[in-house]
Amino acid sequence: MSYTNSVSMDDGNMVFNLMPNADFGYKVHGDPFSTNTRRVLAVLLEKGISYEPITVDLKTGEHKRESYLSLNPFGQVPVFEDGNIKLCESRAITQYIAYVHSSRGTQLLNLQSHKTMATLTMWMEFEAHQFDPFASVLTWEQVIKPIYGLETDQTVVEENETGLENVLNVYEKRLQESRFLACNTFTLVDLHHLPNIQYLLGTPTKKLFENRPKVRTWVDDITGREAWKLACDHDKS
């Protein structure tokens, strides 16, 4: 599937439309419900780049079989193939795609300004090392474990909600100065947050995002993007 952005005007407002585009021969091995897989799909869709989706069934342990371990010896999804290049780790993959296709689709990096790029890189690190540790545990406890018939540990949930609250307090202050986290435009920083946020909006942890006005507006903006909606639709993505 392939989409790219075109711009049109509606009553004076700029509107971004997703339109079909060319095939680069990319392959994405992953599970459509995996947060890390969705992170990669979102970038491809923002860039209007087609790809061949190859489903890896996590429930049956396909990611731990020898055939998959030959792609990623750590047995994790996703794996991204660009010819003879095989990449693992979703954030490394998104940056690769954003760099290679910097002039295409949504501009997810700012390569023209060293200062903005440094700020963007810093906030990507904040997402990976400050936001994600709490958000991933909360997603696991409240969303993934019930799928596998496991019981949610409410003590773990409470502990990690406390940690996430502290992070979101920092975000609330930052978003008083900037529409998005790194700058005033949507970037990889915001996109990297999407998978866990989307799942947590369906849990009681949703209140942590809704109780902070600037965070709530930011969440509404980024979760409402057409590319992200497609990434979450496993039939279409």
UniProtKB/TrEMBL annotation:
Q: Which superkingdom, per the lineage?
A: Eukaryota
- Return the protein name: glutathione transferase
Catalysed reaction(s)?
RX + glutathione = an S-substituted glutathione + a halide anion + H(+)
Which keywords, in A-to-Z order, does the entry hold? Cytoplasm, Detoxification, Transferase
The record's annotation in InterPro entries points to: Glutathione-S-Trfase_C-like, Glutathione-S-Trfase_C_sf, Glutathione_S-Trfase, Glutathione_S-Trfase_N, GST_C, GST_Phi_C, Thioredoxin-like_sf
According to its UniProt record, what is one Pfam family this protein matches? GST_C
One Gene Ontology cellular component term attached to this UniProt record is: cytosol
The chain positions of domain GST C-terminal read 113-237
The EC number of this protein is 2.5.1.18
Could you say which enzyme class this protein belongs to?
Answer: transferase
| Gene Ontology annotations of biological process type | glutathione metabolic process; toxin catabolic process
Q: Which family does the record claim for this protein?
A: Belongs to the GST superfamily. Phi family.
Q: Name one GO molecular function term.
A: glutathione binding
Q: What is its main location?
A: cytoplasm
Organism of origin: Brassica carinata
Where would you find this protein in the cell? Cytoplasm, Cytosol
Q: Where is the GST N-terminal domain?
A: 24-105
